[in-house]
Amino acid sequence: xxxxxxxxxxxxxxxxxxxxxxxxxxxxxxxxxxxxxxxxxxxxxxxxxxxxxxxxxxxxxxxxxxxxxxxxxxxxxxxxxxxxxxxxxxxxxxxxxxxxxxxxxxxxxxxxxxxxxxxxxxxxxxxxxxxxxxxxxxxxxx
Amino acid sequence: xxxxxxxxxxxxxxxxxxxxxxxxxxxxxxxxxxxxxxxxxxxxxxxxxxxxxxxxxxxxxxxxxxxxxxxxxxxxxxxxxxxxxxxxxxxxxxxxxxxxxxxxxxxxxxxxxxxxxxxxxxxxxxxxxxxxxxxxxxxxxxxxxxxxxxxxxxxxxxxxxxxxxxxxxxxxxxxxxxxxxxxxxxxxxxxxxxxxxxxxxxxxxxxxxxxxxxxxxxxxxxxxxxxxxxxxxxxxxxxxxxxxxxxxxxxxxxxxxxxxxxxxxxxxxxxxxxxxxxxxxxxxxxxxxxxxxxxxx
Lengths: 142, 297
Hints:
Chain A: Residues 11-122 form the STAS domain. Chain A: This is Anti-anti-sigma factor. Chain A: It comes from Streptomyces lomondensis. The complex is a heterodimer. By secondary structure, chain A is of the alpha/beta class. Chain A is built from 4 helices and 5 strands. Chain A has helices at residues 32-48, 66-81, 93-102, 115-121; strands at 17-18, 21-27, 53-60, 85-89, 110-112. A 5-stranded mixed sheet of chain A has the order 1-2-3-4-5. In chain A, helix 1 (32-48) packs parallel to helix 2. Chain A is globular. Chain B is an alpha/beta fold. Helices cover 64% and strands 9% of the residues of chain B. Chain B is built from 12 helices and 5 strands. A 5-stranded mixed sheet of chain B has the order 1-2-3-4-5, with helices on both faces. In chain B, helix 10 (222-237) links the parallel strand 3 (209-216) and strand 4 (241-245). In chain B, helix 1 (3-21) runs antiparallel to helix 4 (44-63), helix 4 packs antiparallel against helix 5 (73-91) and helix 5 crosses helix 8 (124-166). Chain B is elongated and about 100 Å long. The mean pLDDT of chain B is 85. The A-B interface holds A 88-89, 91-93, 95-97, 99-101, 105-106, 111-114, 117, 130, 132-133, 135-136, 138, 141-142 and B 192, 195-196, 199-200, 202-203, 206-208, 230, 233-241, 263, 266, 277, 280-283.
């Protein structure tokens, strides 16, 4: 996170909490300074309130580059260090293809189709769907 | 114009006039040649008409002094017809070499006629004319081959597109479970299409599991494996778990021999096993009950 990309923007990404879950919605492009601010905000919120899960909704993002990929991975790792699970929700097909072509498969990140599924995954489900079991490790596979 | 150029020009004009004058006889002889006889099987008149069109084209090219030029205006009009004839021969199993040979066979009857025109067939003028006509028929052969090849390329390009569209259906197997039966060899263009349609289906069906069935994939090499891994990774980023099914024993051995690591991918031997796995992961239980239609009382 050195020089700002396309001018530093003063705006912040809001970090609202839903019970024990932080629900962050990313839209458009994320600048360096915003990303740095977001990482700080998230870790601070996890430290100061009983947060156990972080949902990052990227359904409004049409371009993900290696920079944003790294930011997401860093947010997930730092949240994990503070005992909170991060779930990435709503990635668009085009974005997924781009990331795979870039070789960024985000191995440590939990991914789901949309925010509803993310909340299910974290066990705060509002829907009637049965909670989905945690993403399996090899030992739990059939 | 140099003297030689002028002489060549007048020879070409002579040949052109000869072709016009003897059009009927040439067409009659050509209609019995293999090329026309095998294409126009229905009626001989049709073959004669087609032959006349070709003779006209040759005559026009010669009149313009362009015996070696495949872009001569005369050839343009018969290009379609020649292309169709060559395509029709190719469909009946003739190789390009055979077709070229059949076009070359058209030369002999015309040359014979041309020689008959001259009181002294060994004379200089006769030799010049025969040479010009030989060159002209050579050009005709190139025109036929070129037309046939470019038509073939168009067909190949169109079929490749159709194959991309047709060969990658995404099927909904259950609520939240989609499957792609892959048939044929996976190359980068196809795997791109597969990936896109699978990801779109995951969004549309809100799928939690996606099954890639490779029963119809004849061989798996490191490139195909890489395409599969990419598709699996992209589906995971969308929040769906991918299962690769239909790995036949021979393919399993190949994968192991090549040292490809599919360790992060869930694999099952058949589509049914993959479906069972996906259902179980979603907490859906399939139980066998009494057969339909059998009364319980």
